[in-house]
Design brief:
The protein contains 8 helices and 12 strands. With about 220 residues, the chain is an alpha+beta fold. α1 (about 5-10) packs across α2, α4 packs across α5 (about 120-150) and α6 (about 150-160) packs across α7. The protein starts with a helix and ends with a strand. The protein has a 4-stranded antiparallel beta sheet. Strands 2-7-4-5 form a 4-stranded antiparallel beta sheet. β11 and β12 (about 215) form a beta hairpin.
Length: about 220
């Protein structure tokens, strides 16, 4: 029988929010809790994958090595996200690395259990398909952005996508902590160019900065 704590944690994660209670109990009974300190690699690009991970607490970055060996940041993920499912679905090597930016707690699910649960739970299978579709749409938008938009527009789009927390006055949304180099890696330009773009956006009033976090207007506000 799954613990009440495990069930509550799963119910609070968007991936499992619409899964029926019996299926949710089955999923929870197969999860293994693991903890990792800051600056730890949970998933390593190129290696086989035996587990997928649900981020229960903490924050991680998803990275991929470029041809010249530089680390390129693909995304930042927080509690409620999941990673590692692609290698389980296709039996291939990990397509990217996942590294902790803070102490994290994850719920691990083995490939054998994951595939068995997908076959038994239509709700879970549909939830995974929807999440993979969302990620593919994000990748397509990023590819289009790299091809057609100027650096300033790409930077604004990235900051709007990452900003989720409301500001203290409630009229803006706040990004996670970001360096100019991280922004540059994600929009495909140099750190120096990002520094100029950030300065221009702040001078125009569109962007505000508090330490390494950025405040952007709420879309539609």
């Amino acid at each position: 029988m799954a613990s009440v704590d495990a069930l509550a944690s799963l119910r609070g994660i968007p991936l499992f929010s619409r899964v029926a209670q019996p299926d949710l109990e089955q999923i929870a009974s197969h999860l293994i809790e693991r903890r990792y300190p800051r600056n730890t690699t949970i998933v390593e690009e190129g290696l086989p994958g035996d587990y997928m991970y649900i981020l229960r607490d903490g924050r991680v970055k998803v990275t991929k090595l470029s041809e010249d060996g530089r680390e390129k940041i693909l995304d930042f993920l927080e509690a409620g996200s999941f990673v590692g499912e692609m290698a389980l679905l296709e039996r291939g090597p990990r397509s990217a690395s996942v590294k902790t930016l803070s102490p994290v707690r994850v719920l691990a699910l083995s490939r054998t259990d994951f595939i068995a649960l997908l076959r038994k739970s239509p709700d879970l299978a549909l939830a995974v398909i929807q999440e993979l579709s969302r990620r593919l749409r994000t990748v397509n938008e990023q590819a289009s952005s790299l091809s057609f938009q100027r650096v300033k527009e790409r930077t604004m789009g990235l900051l709007e996508r990452l900003a989720k927390d409301p500001s203290e006055d409630g009229d803006r949304l706040v990004t996670p902590s970001l360096t100019h180099q991280q922004i540059a890696d994600m929009v495909g330009t140099s750190r120096e160019t990002v520094t100029r773009v950030v300065k221009d956006l702040k001078e125009s009033g569109w962007l505000r900065q508090e330490g390494k976090r950025y405040q952007v207007p709420q879309v539609g506000a």
